[in-house]
Amino acid sequence: MEEMEEIRSTVRRFMHTEVLPYIDEYEAKKQLPRELIRKAGATGLYGSVFPESVGGTNLGYLAAVIILEEISRLDVRFAVCSNQQSGTCPTSIYLAGTDEQVEKYVPRLIAGEIIGMMSLTEDGSGSDAAGAMKTRAVRDGDVYRLNGSKMWATLGDECDAGILLAKTDPSAGAKGVTAFIVEPKKYPGFTAKRIETANLSKAFTSSALFLDDFVVPVENRLGQEGDGFKIIMRALQSGRVVIAAKSLGIALGAYDDAVKYANERIVRGSPIGRFQMIQSQIADMAVQIEASRALLYKVAQMMDDGLATNRIASIAKYHAASTAKFCTDLSQQIHGGYGISAEFRIARYKSYADLMYTGEGTANVQKILIAEDALGYKDADRHHGKTGFRPIGKDVA
Q1: Are 65 and 300 in contact (CB under 8 A)?
Q2: Which is deepest, 57, 149, 333, 338, by most CB within 10 Å?
């Protein structure tokens, strides 16, 4: 674990020197800090699970988890772009893309040179994102024309190259969904409108997307027609680990702030940390955090070993997201009235904890997957090793 602790120290140094002194300026201007993202990419913070042949560091999922844990712990806002630069977006391309697609997009995404996106969700689709999908892609010679709309596309208004899913066969349900590598700034028909949110970043935002005969060249189709749902389901295993790592970092940040406040806040001549009720809350937070960390690190190690992880990744994501909600709630209680003040970051962290509970599959969706596997109705890992995708993770060829 010495190597992992060195990685953790590197992330802390990077955050303290390159991000924390500047991120509030970008937030005030509502401007994406592209330069900070490029610096993170150059430092190798987005390339852990990718081989050196595409610009990665080949350090594996455990390293990726530790990197995201520390980023989120210090400023969760800067962790928002991780799925776009190191998670589901480049992972989808690496798993299922042609050699040419991988070479063209993956190195630049994980280097932070271009901004990515993953767009699956639509208004009203809920947990049946594929089956209820209404966005259509119709082939027109050497291009596809996409029509429809999407919701909650993180960095959708900043995207240079991202993944967007649409139906090429509306009668085939999930098997009619196709994945596309889209370049919104290069082709017409793409409009992004920022979604206003409370207590979330003003620099790293999500958007509603509107597609009006949006042009995607045929060579930008990812896999074959109908492969989209299979691709995204495999990529979401990485995405759930990303969300779990962010959730753990949020929980740790809330815990750090609670401990600091409990030692500084004086009531009746003593720090409130001397009171048994506060001590009980601090202890409960510490226990939940260590349990989530053990689960998450286990999943990451299993992924690095090439083992089946869909079930355990869902468990880890659900547990870590629950821990983030639990710890931010208790930390806010410990902060008292200051828990809703802009002077302290706990209110922001609590909002991000709520977001993690939903992102990359809601808590209820995770519980369905876990329960159906436990009851013997549906093996959560039934597709392991059967996808034909490139292997991804530490020591990939």
Answers
A1: yes
A2: 57
Residue 311 CA to residue 315 CA, distance in Å, equals 6
Under 8 Å between Cβ of 184 and 150: no
For 119, half-sphere exposure in the C-beta direction (CA atoms, 13 angstrom radius) is 37
pTM of the model: 0.93
User: Which residue stretches of the chain have pLDDT < 70?
Assistant: 125-128, 386-388, 394-397
* 347 vs 390: CA distance, rounded Å: 41
- In this predicted model, what pLDDT tens digit does every residue of 107-122 receive, in sequence order? 999 999 999 999 999 9
144, 187 Cβ separation under 8 angstroms:
no
Per-residue tokens: 48: 């852990």
Q: What is the pLDDT of residues 120-170, one digit of tens each?
A: 999 876 666 777 899 999 999 999 999 999 999 999 999 999 999 999 999
Q: Which residues are catalytic?
A: 360
Alpha carbon dihedral 342, 345, 349, 352, in 10-degree steps, equals 50
- In angstroms, the CA 206 to CA 280 distance is 37
Partners of 209 in the β-ladder: 150, 192
The contacts found for 264-273 with CB under 8 angstroms, 24 or more apart, are 265/336, 272/334
Instruction: Assign residue 359 the CATH number of its domain.
Output: 1.20.140.10
In CATH, what number is assigned to the domain containing residue 208? 2.40.110.10
End position of a domain, from candidates 111, 127, 156: 111
C-alpha closest to that of 79 among 389, 355, 384: 355
Any domain includes 396:
no
CB 49 within 8 A of CB 56: yes
Domain boundary (196, 225, 254) is at 225
In a shared domain, residues 168 and 237 = no
- Which uninterrupted H or E stretch holds 221? strand 221-222
